[in-house]
Amino acid sequence: MQKPRILIAGAGLGGLTAAACLLKKGFDVRVFEQASQLGEIGAGIQQSANSVKVLFDLGLRDQLEEIAVKPLEYEFRRFDTAELLHKIPFAAAHEAAHGAPYYHLHRADFHRILVDKVRSMAPDCITLNTKVAGFSESSDAVTLNFTDGATASGDILIGADGFKSVIRNQIVGPTPIEYTGYVAWRFTVPRARLPANVMGLVGAVWCGPNNHAVMYWISSGSVLNFVGCPPRSEWEEESWTLKRPWGEMKADFSGWHSTMQTIINAADHDQCFRWALNVRQPLSNWSTRRATLLGDAAHPTLPFLAQGAAIAVEDGAVLARALDGSATVPDAIALYQRNRIERTARVVNESNKMGGLYRIVDAEEMRRAFAERNPAKDRAQWLFNYDPLTVPLE
């Protein structure tokens, strides 16, 4: 088919990766973002070999090496004694086994290099201040409607507008949400504010009764990222930008090891964020004939596999391949969805289950659980070895 004109709603990590993959294949791409300026909220993010292969194919290896951290290993420790329960080798071992490195990144750094990549390929590709109201489609076109009355027309629409997606809501309707009973705290601490020996160049999961915390270095090792997931009975706003009192976070980790207390005490008291962790069941369909979804709009995922952004990157590469190799737009969308539904549903479901491994109350039961279930082996068999650039599309 003649290369279709592509509209992308959302200039987050998934939308920008899709834009870069499509531009590389020669498509006419326009990205619409509701924000008045480009940037990314949040803090740490992880990218494993399955997504890094796509980023390397886009020519971003040097940029990633400059801003990222390659963890030497992942440690799983008991919350009160710091007992080492389990260890997974990363760095060279991950790249040797799976064909690309494992990176820890600051979301803002990652977003910036994707923006730069897209603009280097198409300087006027991204339009800001364009809030999506919905879309309409005919047999041969799709129109994206904005809240100010403006429109944009193309051949295909990609909804990359996040877990509160307007495009998703129009395609599949309201999605039932189940509150997990857990929230996520996040903050960052500059390395200079911490003792020199507080933590090696590793990722660390501290596991406690009905609670756990994950820490790793970002921004070339100059900043420590913290995410903690304690229980909370009441449902809260599902937003990354709402601040909560530092004292509430401190109380959620009372009795934890002195290393944890040192890190929590070093946090900026007015820069602690907390949001609800919600489950949405995987979809069996996320497309029409000329519109489809990717990333959190298609498959919002709990953070316990650290794969939400990674599978959004995968989406962009597979969608670009499907469009490049199909006879019609509907054929391409169907091919893309058919090859992403099962994999992304597995990531969502495995993420839902993984949180329980980190929050076992009894110490001996936790030791047995790690001995019986090797997280690295589980993931290596199906997750990290996936290559979005070469996997057969059927």
Description:
The protein contains twelve helices and 17 strands. By secondary structure, the chain is α/β, with parallel strands linked by helices. Helix 1 packs parallel to helix 5, helix 1 packs parallel to helix 9 and helix 9 (308-324) runs antiparallel to helix 10 (329-357).
Question: What is the fold's blueprint, element by element?
Answer:
Elements: E1 5-9, H1 13-24, E2 28-32, E3 44-47, H2 49-57, H3 61-67, E4 73-78, E5 84-89, H4 92-98, E6 103-106, H5 107-121, E7 126-127, E8 132-137, E9 142-146, E10 151-154, E11 156-159, H6 166-172, E12 178-190, E13 203-208, E14 211-218, E15 223-228, H7 246-252, H8 258-265, E16 273-279, E17 291-293, H9 308-324, H10 329-357, H11 363-372, H12 375-382
- The H/E string reads EHEEHHEEHEHEEEEEHEEEEHHEEHHHH
The structural class is alpha/beta
Tally of helical runs: 12
Low-confidence stretches: none
Mean pLDDT: 93
Structure summary:
It is built from twelve helices and 17 strands. By secondary structure, the protein is of the alpha/beta class.
Essential attributes:
394 residues; alpha/beta; seven-stranded mixed β-sheet; five-stranded parallel β-sheet; 12 helices; 17 strands; 24% strand
